[in-house]
Write a structure and sequence with these properties.
The chain has 256 residues and is of the alpha/beta class. It has 8 helices and 10 strands. The chain has a single domain, classed as Alpha/Beta hydrolase fold, catalytic domain (Rossmann fold, 3-Layer(aba) Sandwich), CATH 3.40.50.1820. The strands form 2 sheets. The chain has an 8-stranded mixed sheet, sandwiched between helices.
């Protein structure tokens, strides 16, 4: 899946996507905050899907990668709506959602919205990598200083240095407020499908205790948790990618 992406208009914004035909259940990639569909894990999954003849679908949220739109205007609700639009337009039958970091939050919200719409059968399984559901609530808001809160109120956003590039990480007031409306960790979560969580214990961005909190809210008989003692947030080393592939192999053996 090389070359230029295709685009779908979602709410007036061109959303870039790439897809490859193949067997169902297919794989749907959901990237993290400020990441894109050409990252290491997404590309590794493209290779895995090709070798296994599986359908593979990925996209960039608005303000990310090759999609249009302004990053600062995005929220969980915005990116959720785009992800649902892409899933519905370009996949058929049950899919395995692979969500990385914020993408895990999007995946969990997609399950709930599809259930509400009578489309429970669209999600066959979830593979969640360094999952960051509710990150704006549980991980960002608690460390806001009084000065940061003032800047959010007066400027609508704050900036922090990023460990992953020269551009700062931006959090907007809209993102934080919308995050509260999309909270998933406040009650038990019934996904109606198997879940495999991959989490690094040396993750500086999303502590492994956050993954444990998530797992504690999921039905225990449907959940596998793989902890990587020296794993960071990206989980993009060769051994991490091999673990991801094994998780997908196991998921497919279970669901189809």
């Amino acid at each position: 899946m090389t070359g230029d992406p295709d685009f779908i208009d979602v709410g007036g914004v061109p959303i870039a996507y790439r897809r490859a035909a193949g067997l169902a259940p297919g794989i749907v990639w959901l990237g993290g905050y400020r990441s894109d569909m050409r990252g290491t894990k997404a590309e590794a999954l493209a290779g895995w899907a090709g070798r296994n003849g599986r359908a593979y679908l990925r996209h960039d949220y608005s303000g990310h990668g090759e999609s249009g739109g302004v990053f600062e205007e995005g929220t969980i609700s915005t990116w959720l709506a785009q992800s649902l639009a892409v899933l519905r337009a370009f996949s058929n039958g049950p899919q395995i959602l692979v969500g990385s970091s914020m993408g895990a939050w999007i995946a969990l919200r997609m399950v709930a919205e599809l259930e509400r719409a009578g489309e429970r059968g669209r999600v066959a399984g979830l593979v969640l990598i360094a999952p960051a559901p509710d990150f704006s609530i549980d991980l960002v808001e608690p460390r806001l200083t009084p000065d940061m809160r003032r800047r959010l109120e007066t400027h609508g956003f704050i900036e922090e240095p990023s460990a992953y590039g020269s551009d700062p990480t931006i959090y907007t007031r809209a993102l934080i407020e919308d995050g509260r409306a999309n909270r998933v960790l406040g009650a038990p979560i019934d996904t109606h499908c198997p879940v495999h969580v991959l989490q690094g214990m040396a993750d500086p961005d999303v502590p492994y205790q956050h993954a444990l909190k998530l797992v504690g809210l999921l039905p225990s008989d449907d959940v596998t948790l793989s902890l990587v003692p020296d794993g960071d947030h990206r989980l993009s080393r060769p051994q991490d990618l091999a673990m991801l592939e094994r998780a997908l192999d196991a998921m497919l053996a279970r669901v189809g």
